[in-house]
Amino acid sequence: MRKRIVLILAAGKGTRMKSPYPKVLHSLLGKPMISRLIDSLMTINPSKIFVVVGYEAEKVKEVIKKYNIETIYQEPQLGTAHAVMIAREKLLLEGEADLLIVSGDVPLIPMDEINLFLNNFSNSNNIAALISITLEEPYGYGRVLKDFEGKMKRVVEEKDATPAQKTAKEVNTGVYFMRIPEVFPYLEKIDTKNEQGEYYLPDLFSLIYNENKRLDCFRGSLAARYLGINSQFELAKAEEWLRVSVIGRLLSEGVIIKMPDTVWIEPEVEIESGAIVHPFTKICGKSKIETEAEIMSFSTIIDSNIGKGTIIREYTHLEKTIIGKNCRIGPYCRTREGTVTENDVRLGNFVETKKARIASGVKANHLSYLGDVTIGSNTNVGAGTITCNYDGEKKLPTIIEDNVFIGSDTQLVAPVKVCAGSYIAAGTTVTREVPPDSLAISRTPQKNIEGWATKRRNKKREGN
Ligand code: UD1
Ligand code: MG
């Protein structure tokens, strides 16, 4: 088999997006569209992937640097054929190869189907091929024109097409197969004699057609997956397509999703059958939800694991968090990076946690900040408890051992330790270690001045 290499065209600004971001960095259900595209291209194991970058190249490179990909710089951007010619030297170094060219703005392409077409192309004698689809509304796409035998003879762009040509509903998807090095002499002949004054890659096909007809056109069967993204409207449409397909897969696997039209679940999320997802929830990144867990409305879960039987109640926000089994979290709770709980934990309203290791049976039901803290099993954290973990320069740890009772409105000034079985009286500021099984209390003794209020009122009345 010939070597397989991939070239992604991603240098364009995406003027029609009317946004300050390079087009291919727009997020598609939680990931930049170019990252989604690269992830799926990886599945066919190409020996190399090249990306042509140009507009905001540094930003695009930054996003894709985690992949083992070579970037090629195109400046100025004179058209899709120009982009391929810029890559020419690098591509020729690969020797004989089948080259798959895709556009960075067509991110949902079905790799199974493309792989079949690629095999087909490799076994043929053709120099180039493209994938076409049929669209009821072909506006904006290059139209595929056929000869009387049904063979593709050229592609005409929207802006160059005559009214009659515009009625063609078969369009170019921007996915191409090319034989290297044979294709280059044809690419060199492409000129800029068109409405936009650009080097159009699809012009390749009329050149090959006129010379020897060694070209092919594969009919893609899944039109929605080849839709190009050129405007915010098209981005929203592609994102909605992907969202619906993720929800559809989860429903078919037995996840219970209420009002699925209102739920946002990103493709990398794993949810076990029997978990329940309520309306208006957002589950993002690499989150994992175990069976019988329940995610209530208006909650957001990012890169977090939720254990079996746990209920995440309304308006809760979890990020980089691991929650054990049978916990009750929220409503209105916020857990931040490094929060890890064991089982049967309760975190209630307006409780914020960060880098918090919370053992089983712990309850912190109201109004707390628990940061850089370890909390032992069955400890009760009273309302208004704050770990004072920051001294203005660095973050400092708090350790609270098992079976501690922390009264309301306690401040724990880190670094500090509360040993097992102790009680902290309400309103205490803890600045020193509390030994096991003791009571820590720091309060100004209460003074009652009898009759004070009466006197005050009388004074006020006299004044009037
Ligand atoms: C292109 C095709 C059209 C096809 C459609 C499918 C051309 C001339 N037209 O149109 O036939 O139906 O895709 O989606 O190719 N790019 C560069 N350098 C450049 C110009 C573009 O890297 O100089 C990149 C863009 O970043 C983009 C891709 O090439 O990712 C396609 O360019 P775009 O301007 O979106 O072409 P379309 O008008 O969509
Ligand atoms: Mg496009």
Q: What order do the helices and strands come in, and which of them pair?
A:
Layout: E1 3-10, E2 27-28, E3 31-32, H1 33-42, E4 48-53, H2 57-64, E5 70-73, H3 80-86, H4 88-92, E6 97-103, H5 111-122, E7 128-134, E8 143-146, E9 152-156, H6 163-166, E10 170-180, H7 184-188, H8 203-211, E11 215-219, H9 232-252, E12 256-257, E13 264-265, E14 270-271, E15 276-277, E16 282-284, E17 288-289, E18 294-295, E19 300-302, E20 305-306, E21 311-312, E22 317-319, E23 321-323, E24 328-329, E25 334-335, E26 339-341, E27 346-358, E28 363-375, E29 380-381, E30 386-388, E31 398-400, E32 405-406, E33 411-413, E34 416-418, E35 423-424, E36 429-430, E37 439-440, H10 452-463
Parallel strand pairs: 1-4, 1-6, 4-5, 7-11, 12-15, 13-16, 14-17, 15-18, 16-19, 17-20, 18-21, 19-22, 20-23, 21-24, 22-25, 23-26, 24-27, 25-27, 26-27, 27-28, 28-29, 28-31, 29-32, 30-33, 31-34, 32-35, 33-36, 35-37
Antiparallel strand pairs: 2-3, 6-10, 7-10, 8-9
Can you walk me through this structure?
The protein has 464 residues and is an alpha/beta fold. The protein has two domains: 3-226, Spore Coat Polysaccharide Biosynthesis Protein SpsA, Chain A, CATH 3.90.550.10; 232-440, Hexapeptide repeat proteins (UDP N-Acetylglucosamine Acyltransferase, domain 1). It is built from ten helices and 37 strands. The strands form five sheets. It has a 23-stranded parallel beta sheet that branches. Helix 2 (57-64) links the parallel strand 4 (48-53) and strand 5. The mean pLDDT is 97. The site of magnesium ion has 4 residues, from loops.
